[in-house]
Structure prediction request, 441 residues.
Amino acid sequence: MKKNALACIAGLAGVALAAVAQAGTVRDDGLKPYEVVGDIAIPKPLTDKPGDPANGRKLVANRKKGNCLACHKIEQMKDFLFHGEIGPELTDIASNMPASEMRLRLVNPKIVNPDTIMPAFYRVDGLYRVMKKFQGKPILTAQEIEDVIAFLVTLKAPK
Amino acid sequence: MSRKGKNMTTGGGKLAAVAAGFLLAAGFVAGLSTPASACEECKGKYEVEGRKSGYLFSNPETRAIQDDDFANGGMLWVEKGAELWNKVDGKAGKSCASCHGDAEESMKGVYTVYPKYVQELGKLENLEQRINRCREANMGAKAWKWESDDLLAMTTYIGYLSRGMPMNVKIDGPAAPFFEKGKEEYFKRRGQLDMACKHCHYDHAGQYIRADLISEGRGGGAFPAYRLKWQKIGSLHRRFKGCNKQIRAQPYKAGSDEYVNLELFVKWRSRGLPVEVPAVRR
Prediction:
């Protein structure tokens, strides 16, 4: 119950901040502004520069960056050993989910599922006891989020 | 002190009867099981009322090392602990044996009831801290440092003397508020990755996270455990720190109130599971 309330606040905060951003103000947490639509998607890219799918693939594997393989199996990445089984397989994700929804999943999946284990990759507020060297920094930068999405939209299972 | 010692032993005595049945069953099962089998057979010992020990999530090679005292690196710490037991140290000119006599009698079952509430302290105390209180107050010796070979050896030795006995910490009465705090820790999200212990060990136990099979995070009867990754024995608090760091959360100090409270919660989650000290984990 408490968690749901928190998620609502996070959702509202996202909208409020986006409104501020449209007026040309910088967010005070240093992150790029974004607008959450319908609690399910962030339609606009976080950066003007298009994402780089090759770099995105690296970030998905990198244990110090996305480390998505810790939890998700991706058939197209069999060149890396040990794919986790915590989250749904992403092998065909591009057939099932638009980029706008992937963006929210990466930025802050707690807006979709408040109880999820999946980290918010682009968030610095509302966290507790973050190690000093990671304080005030998101796990991925805005450009890195776009790079990962550019890779995810290529993931279609051969039919 | 000696009065308390007696209480602990009496508690242990009652438990010993339960443990005897346990050990019989375990010995019987161990004879049948081959290390390579997924451990359906050893569940009798390592699963109690649906609560599973980390042993059942270890791979067969690691289990085989734990099952063989000659291969188990943790046994070196047991031997060292047994030596320290009789070693005179400190201003009072005493060893542990001077007050407690034969450890195999006086320390049997002791491991299973820690951490416990201590009135003089007004809070919980775990086994490492109890050992150090004896050193300072009764031996006039210096407290051993956390994670030092000596403290690990003594804790491991005392744990070993309860091997096979069921974990049995108290969480009611004056321990209750500390238990609640420990439980809160287990369920509170933390770190840059924003996870609570429960996200891995309740929600996703039995699933692989990259190359690691996640256990139920009980660990109560296992530590100090010999971790292949550490290449030595290590405390439960060291394991807590590791779990905190991997989600980029600021860990607490070993021996902090926060970790002792968390230890009580984790050991309560392990109630009924057998003491495995020194367990072997990857």
